[in-house]
Design goal:
Blueprint: H1 7-16, H2 23-30, H3 36-49, E1 54-56, E2 59-61, E3 69-74, E4 84-87, E5 99-101, E6 115-122, E7 131-140, E8 145-152, E9 157-161, E10 170-172, E11 185-192, E12 200-208, H4 215-223, H5 232-239, E13 250-251, E14 259-261, E15 270-276, E16 286-293, H6 295-298, H7 304-312, E17 316-317, E18 322-323, H8 328-334, E19 342-352, E20 358-369, E21 373-375, H9 376-384, H10 392-415, E22 425-429, E23 435-440, H11 445-467, E24 474-476, H12 482-494, H13 507-518, H14 523-533, E25 538-540, H15 564-577, H16 593-627, E26 634-643, E27 646-651, E28 657-661, E29 670-673, E30 678-681, E31 687-689, E32 693-702, E33 707-715, H17 731-752
Parallel strand pairs: 5-7, 10-12, 13-20, 14-21
Antiparallel strand pairs: 1-2, 3-4, 3-6, 4-5, 6-7, 8-9, 8-11, 9-10, 11-12, 15-16, 16-19, 17-18, 19-20, 22-23, 24-25, 26-27, 26-32, 27-28, 29-30, 30-31, 32-33
């Protein structure tokens, strides 16, 4: 007969083995058999009476401890956007321990009120956080929520959605308004779906005046769940960041590493310098330096800063503010290459031949001091000879930079990256936070200089790490899918241009089409059609190349302040080259490194898309507010998108996009041809297609949603040749073509696997 364990021994076992805490598990662990089981039952009852353990079904656990698997309810995101879970069966007087939900890329998006089955594990790394949870299955979904404007009525009111993709209002009963005033921005939860009439809702939170300055970006951040505040642990870690030392660093403070950024830049994370190469083997060549802020020194793997940066994935930029990936202490101070201040960096030295080819490169961890922080306009002024107030030593640095750029630009032209010409709009706000102007961003050689040197640096980083077989994230842009190329050929055929079949697509072929159309009336439609044929770039631990840049390998190295993928790459370089502290964490060194990288790649690709949507929505709302007092005015524009319900029209003056409904095109039925991206009138054969020039009248502008509604005034002839009724009867041929495309796509996926 074995000796009965003490109460302390039983408690230790239960704490260390929460998934084996039933009475029979405890008996098996201590070798208790036969009549001793009765004594064990008595001891467990005493522990329960004393409050040392509590019973959940057949299992026991210490008070405040959670089982390894259980049912939880999703709580509202905190200020940082994190989701916490509450156990469904918690009935103790003390509050439950905090359980942080750790999502995987394959998990569905969870919302407050969802019931989930999760596997939990204790968290021993972060103070104040007891458990982490991984999703097993979502069992029920909480009530849907809406961000909208409350309109007060005689009995309660209605909520108008701020999302222009949602056109259904919700009804709020008098007792469910939460004291909201007419016109307030509110968050509401649907409480019932009526068979007839509007869904019923209750207001959960009042968010203030939607027309107040800076509310536009707040709406976007709230709508897309973008975190804009940091918790105290992250801020404290940023404030206590260790100062950078010269240990293992190369001293580059003598180099004229200047920063060149937009005039309204909020941070400066890259600097460049160029020198005449003194190597006699490279006469007429240059040495180009690219220095990037050493964020990895301050943000260490596993820290609160690192977890928060990974969760955010990237910074999100709005006209009036930025939702940063890192706290301001780092992003605008310690990791910003401030003029005249010593700053740690990861630097790259490249030897460039006179024809622009790269002869060699090396990375180093260094200390730098920038002699000047310049805007693109100032740098271009030196190149054009119109600059004023630029000291001669700085001007000399810029002249050498431009000389080096002209050589690498020649190499870029030989490489033939995709040369789309797409204007970028800029929303200018006044001091009150309202739109004062909308203009097209100017493009200078100074922009291209920085872009080309950054591309070269990114290529060098990918080559270096690939040669050392280190794990990192590639920036991938795959070639267009066959079905998109077929749609592009349809559009090109309609305006008399040809994209050959039967050969591997290269960017130089697309560039030839763009040049051919550049001086004619179809330049816009060709640029739009080529753009729409492209796949979306993303991050991946495998190398699939970068089609748009026409590069075999490419990664993001140059912006670790605002992109987590770049921080991953910096750590990989530090580890692979032995550059000191701040290298990759255990998740990139062990046997599960590839799975961890893939999960991170999918996560940061997703956060990038969310940020792009939020930035676009914010710009749309500002543009709608800017045009709201010009309803009834006429504007020139072009068709930027075609759907069966109408045309999207981009205005020449502001670049704003709005909808021209199909009912406004004429008194007949219009067939939607997705291949040629046009609408064709059934009777008249009248065709409205991508890139077509129109004059439209602004019928409605809704600032809160960013929606614009147009009516047609006049239209130029469509660039797409109308095929009349005959063109609508080609279904069988197109069906066969689509089947061939599908087979080719399946074969391509099989080869990749």
């Amino acid at each position: 007969m074995v000796e009965m364990p003490s109460k302390a021994q039983i408690l230790d076992w239960v704490r260390e083995n929460p998934d084996q805490s039933a009475k029979r598990d405890i008996a098996r662990a201590f070798g208790i058999k036969g009549a001793q089981r009765v004594e064990l039952k008595r001891v467990l009852r005493e522990l329960e009476d004393e409050g040392a353990i509590e019973r959940t079904g057949r299992r026991v656990r210490p008070p405040g401890h959670l089982p390894p698997v259980g049912l939880f309810e999703v709580q509202r995101p905190d200020a940082s956007g994190d989701l916490f879970l509450r156990p469904k069966d918690w009935d103790a007087e003390t509050p439950p321990p905090p359980v942080l939900f750790q999502p995987r890329s394959s998990d569905p998006a969870l919302a407050e009120g969802d019931t989930v089955l999760v596997k939990i594990r204790p968290n021993h790394t972060e103070e104040g956080l007891a458990y982490e949870a991984r999703l097993i299955r979502r069992l029920t979904q909480g009530a849907p929520r809406m961000l909208g404007i409350f309109r007060k009525g005689a009995e309660g009111g209605r909520i108008l959605p701020v999302d222009k993709k949602s056109d259904r209002e919700w009804e709020v009963a008098a007792g469910a308004t939460n004291g909201a005033e007419d016109g307030e921005l509110v968050e509401a939860e649907r409480v019932s779906r009526e068979r007839f009439g509007l869904p019923r809702a209750r207001i959960l939170e009042r968010l203030g005046d939607p027309g107040a300055p800076r509310s536009v970006s707040l709406i976007a951040m709230r709508q897309h769940a973008i975190a804009y505040e940091f918790d105290e642990a992250v801020l404290a870690e940023a404030e206590g960041a260790p100062p950078a030392t010269m240990d293992s660093r190369e001293d580059l403070r003598h180099l004229p590493l200047v920063t060149i950024d937009p005039s309204d830049a909020r941070d400066h994370d890259d600097a460049v310098a160029a020198l005449r190469d003194e190597d006699p083997a490279n006469p007429g060549g240059h040495v180009v330096w690219v220095a990037i802020a050493d964020v990895a020194w301050y943000v260490r793997p596993g820290s609160a800063l690192d977890r928060e940066a990974r969760r955010r994935g990237n910074s999100t930029y709005f006209p009036d503010r930025v939702a940063p990936m890192l706290p301001e202490r780092l992003s605008a101070d310690l990791c910003s290459l401030v003029e005249g201040e010593d700053r740690p960096c990861v630097a790259l030295r490249m030897q460039i031949a006179p024809d622009g080819s790269r002869l060699s490169h090396r990375f180093t961890r260094a200390m730098m001091r920038s002699p000047a922080a310049l805007s693109y306009e100032q740098a271009q002024g030196v190149e054009d000879g119109t600059a004023e107030g630029i000291a001669e030593p700085v001007a000399a640095v810029l002249r050498t930079l431009f000389a080096a750029y002209r050589t690498v630009a020649a190499a870029r032209d030989r490489r033939q990256p995709l040369a789309l010409e797409l204007p970028e709009r800029q929303v200018v706000l006044d001091e009150a936070g309202t739109v004062s102007a909308v203009r097209q961003r100017a493009r200078f050689d100074a922009h291209r200089l920085i872009e080309e040197f950054m591309v070269l640096a990114n290529v060098c980083a990918a080559e270096t790490l690939e040669a050392r077989k280190a794990g990192f994230l590639y920036r991938t842009h795959e070639e267009p899918a066959e079905e998109k190329l077929e749609a592009l050929r349809e559009v090109l055929d309609s305006i008399g241009l040809v994209l050959p079949k039967g050969q591997a697509l290269q960017t130089r072929q697309l560039n030839a089409l763009l040049r051919e159309a550049a001086e004619g009336p179809h330049a816009e439609i060709v640029n739009l059609a080529v753009l729409r044929a492209q796949t979306q770039a993303y991050y991946a631990p495998e190398n699939f190349g970068h089609f748009g840049l026409n590069l075999q390998r490419y990664a993001h190295f140059t912006s670790p302040i605002r992109r987590y993928a770049d921080l991953i790459l910096h750590r990989a370089l530090i580890g692979a080259l032995g550059l000191g502290e701040g290298g990759p964490g255990p998740e990139l060194r062990g046997p599960e490194a590839r799975a961890s990288l893939r999960e991170t790649a999918e996560h940061v690709s997703r956060t990038e898309r969310i940020s792009m949507e939020a930035e676009r929505d914010t710009t749309d709302r500002y543009l709608a507010a800017y045009l709201a007092d010009r309803e009834g005015a006429e504007f020139r524009g072009r068709v930027s998108g075609v759907q069966r319900f109408g045309l999207f029209v981009a205005l020449d003056e502001t670049g704003a996009d709005g909808l021209l409904p199909v009912r406004g095109l004429g008194d007949e039925f219009f067939h939607h041809d997705p291949d040629r991206q046009c609408l064709v009138g059934e009777r008249s054969g009248m065709t409205y297609g991508l890139g077509q020039r129109l004059v439209v009248r602004l019928r409605e502008a809704v600032p809160i949603t960013g929606g614009l509604l147009f009516e047609l005034v006049s239209a130029e002839a469509s660039p797409a040749r109308s095929r009349g009724r005959a063109g609508l009867g080609q279904g069988p041929r197109r069906k066969l073509a689509r089947e061939r495309i599908a087979r080719a796509k399946a074969a391509r996926k099989a080869r990749r696997r």
